[in-house]
Amino acid sequence: MLTKNYIMRVIAAEVSSVVRYANKVYYHNPSDSPERDLFQYTVCQEKITLSEVADLPNISNEKDKTSVIILDATLNYHSDIEDLLKKVKQKISRTTRLMLICYNPYLRWVYLFANFIGFRKGTLPCTFLKMSDLNDLAELAGYKIVLTKNSAFCPFHLLGIGNLINSVAAVIPLVKYLSFVSVVTMRPVIEEKGLPSLSIVIPARNEKGNIENALKRMPKFDGAKLEIIFVEGHSSDDTWGEIQRVVQSYKGKFDIKTYQQTGKGKVDAVRLGFSKASNEILTILDADLTMPPEMLERYYEAYCKGIADFVNGSRLLYQMEGDAMQFLNKLGNIFFAKVLSILLGVRLSDSLCGTKLVSAHDYRRMVTWRNDFGDFDPFGDFELLFPASVLALGIVNVPIKYLSRTYGSTNISRFYHGLILLKMVMIGFFKVKLGKYNIKLNKS
After folding, report:
1. Residue 337 has what pLDDT?
2. pLDDT category, 34, cuts 50, 70, 90?
3. How far is the C-alpha of 34 from the C-alpha of 14, rounded, in Å?
4. How do residues 300-333 score in pLDDT, each as one tens digit?
5. Taking the domains of the chain in order of start, what are their residue ranges?
6. What percent of the chain has a predicted confidence (pLDDT) above 90?
7. Topology of domain 3-190, per CATH?
8. Overall average pLDDT of the 367-378 stretch
């Protein structure tokens, strides 16, 4: 494969791993002799090319759609990037993502040489940005960088070896700074204007003694519309009977839905609950109440402030109550959080906290991603964290004090489930890190 086309395809694969789950993609290339190969190869639902960034239409009212704006080297040809980003932000919504393709400032000489030998055409870029520059500009203009991918290390296909090099080099210290470009995705920091409605899914198996306490301790969420969904899973202690009793006792105080699983496991319960939810925001509360129900307001507040579009709980900061988590379990949680942070390119302080919050719109995109990726997670944590990273939702970790159980016993098998989690990490490496090069790119 010709080197130039191969590089474009490598970058297009990185871009496509995110934008193929967007409803619409806008593209701008500022060069006076633009090469459109990148956008031609990119896989997405709808493409719109912008002659000028100012031609971007006003999409600030989008709520249940996701648009991505690709600025291909635009910043490398601009002398007032802060102003450009601010003007773009005036036209976009919370669900919009800004994807920046930026030349590596440490390889400036490569671009000069490429122009000299005729491999690259057009005006030479005038602005080379380091990540520290991009972080400052993002903050000044009201954005947050949520995903950074170094792309295109090897310019040759080499019968597939180039794909391996381009994948592995991105996670090797020091070497990862030698890519030709960085693909940086930003999300605008935009607060909610009102109080979005919230659905709380409570999976429950053998948790009869905790059902009523979950409602007694439920926060008010500043009066937001609230829906509680109990999903019972083959209990042997009459949890289902207790749920029915509690529903009658709290009728009129809460909008409560109840379902029984036909499948097995928490992941099946969460999927069922989310599929029945009718509100704008979705979250999970484990019925063991080791994550205090009162803390759900913190998750909701973080979302409403626009801090992130995926809110993840973190049990590992504060001292835990009693024997809430055994020592080896804690080491395992720290290990998987560190590994997934490297694998996904995001900052996770706890990958296995059961409580997470996401919009219903983004969850539907997660389901589409899962249908492509495959059904691999029997617990449900990774199948939310993986797409939260891939789709560039932006993740924030909310620290909570992890409590001991007051009823029942854990269903966790430390070593057996640890091996399953390790297997999922390996699946993630091969299908997230390497799998993007298996995306069937457009030919033209």
Report:
1. 87
2. very low
3. 20
4. 999 999 999 999 999 998 888 877 777 778 888 8
5. 3-190, 198-432
6. 64
7. Rossmann fold (3.40.50)
8. 85
Specify the long-range contacts of residues 130-139, CB closer than 8 Å, at least 24 apart: 130/105, 131/182, 131/184, 134/100, 134/102, 134/184, 137/81, 137/82, 137/85, 138/85, 138/186
Q: Classify 178 as helix, strand or coil.
A: helix
CA-angle at 259, arms to 214 and 352, nearest 5°: 55
Distances (CA, A) of 323 to 42, 47, 186, 222, 328: 51, 54, 40, 33, 12
**Using an 8 Å Cβ cutoff, are 232 and 258 in contact?**
yes
DSSP 215-249: HHT---GGG--EEEEEEE-S-SS-HHHHHHHHHHH
3-state SS assignment for residue 402 = coil
What pLDDT was estimated at residue 164? 84
> With 0-12 CB in 10 A as exposed, 13-18 as middle and 19+ as buried, what is 276?
middle
The DSSP element (H or E) to which 398 belongs, if any, is: strand 395-399
Pair 180, 119: CB distance under 8 Å: no
Q: What is the pLDDT of residues 134-179, one digit of tens each?
A: 999 999 999 999 999 999 998 888 888 888 888 888 878 889 889 9
| Order of all β-strands in the sheet with 198-204 | 256-260, 226-232, 198-204, 281-284, 356-359, 310-314, 395-399
Instruction: Specify the pLDDT at position 167.
Output: 82
| Residue 1 structure tokens | 């494969």
Question: Encoding tokens for residue 368?
Answer: 């589409």
Tokens 């301790």 sit on residue:
217
Amino acid at 166: N
Evaluate whether 44 touches 18 at the Cβ level (below 8 Å).
no
Residues 6+ apart with CB under 8 A from 277: 199, 201, 227, 229, 360
List strand residue ranges (DSSP E) for 152-206, in order: 181-188, 198-204
Q: Do domains 3-190 and 198-432 have the same CATH topology?
A: no
DSSP 305: T
**Cβ contact 344:389 at 8 Å:** yes
Give the residue carrying structure tokens 């219903």. Answer: 360
Predicted pLDDT of residue 1: 46
- CATH class belonging to 198-432: alpha beta
Instruction: Indicate the SS3 state at residue 104.
Output: coil
Measured distance CA(434)–CA(438) in Å, rounded:
8
Q: What are phi and psi of 187, to 5 degrees?
A: -120, 140
Buried b (16+ CB within 10 A) or exposed e, 383-417: bbbbbbbbbbbbbbbbbbebbebeebeeeeeeeeb
List, in sequence order, every residue forming a beta bridge with 396; answer none if it has no partner: 311
Is beta strand 97-103 parallel, antiparallel or unpaired with respect to 67-72?
parallel
